[in-house]
C-alpha cells in the first residue's frame, strides 16, 4: 500500500478557493478508485468526490459544480480543486487510495 499525504488546507473566506493535493509514496497508476472524503466532529466521514483509473468522476450533490477532482498518475498525486467555498465545507479532508491520508483541515469563514 502506498502512503498518502494531504496538503493545501487552510483558512479561507466564503467564496474563496483552495486546492488540496494528496501525494502518494508510490505509483497510483494501478489504483482503480481514489477519492476525497471529509469529516466534521460528531459526524461520519463522507465521500466528497471520487475518480477511477479511467478518469470517471462522481461528486456529492453538495459540491457538484464547485469542486473538481483530478489525478496525475505521472506525479502520483490526487487533487481537489475547491471553488466558491461555503462555511458548510469546513471539515477535515482526507484522501483515499487503498489507504488513508492523515487529513488536512479546511476552514471557511463567513
Task: Find the count of extended strands (DSSP E, 2+ residues).
Answer: 10
The helix/strand series, from N terminus to C terminus, equals EEEEEEEEEE
Biggest sheet: strands, sense, closure?
Answer: 6 strands, mixed
- Termini distance? 39 Å
Percent of residues in β-strands: over 45%
Account of the protein in words:
The chain has no helices and ten strands. By secondary structure, the protein is mostly beta strands. The strands form two sheets. It has a six-stranded mixed sheet, with no helix packed on it. The mean pLDDT is 97.
Structure, briefly:
Helices cover about 0% and strands about 50% of the residues. It is built from no helices and 10 strands.
Amino acid at each position: 500500500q502506498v502512503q498518502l499525504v494531504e496538503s493545501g488546507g487552510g483558512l479561507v473566506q466564503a467564496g474563496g478557493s483552495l486546492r488540496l493535493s494528496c501525494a502518494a509514496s508510490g505509483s497510483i497508476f494501478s489504483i482503480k478508485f481514489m477519492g476525497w472524503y471529509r469529516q466534521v466532529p460528531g459526524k461520519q466521514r463522507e465521500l466528497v468526490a471520487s475518480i477511477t483509473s479511467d478518469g470517471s468522476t462522481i461528486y456529492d450533490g453538495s459540491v457538484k459544480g464547485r469542486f473538481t477532482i483530478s489525478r496525475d498518475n505521472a506525479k502520483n498525486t490526487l487533487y481537489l480543486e475547491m471553488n466558491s467555498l461555503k462555511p458548510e465545507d469546513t471539515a477535515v479532508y482526507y484522501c483515499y487510495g487503498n489507504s488513508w491520508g492523515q487529513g488536512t483541515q479546511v476552514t471557511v469563514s463567513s
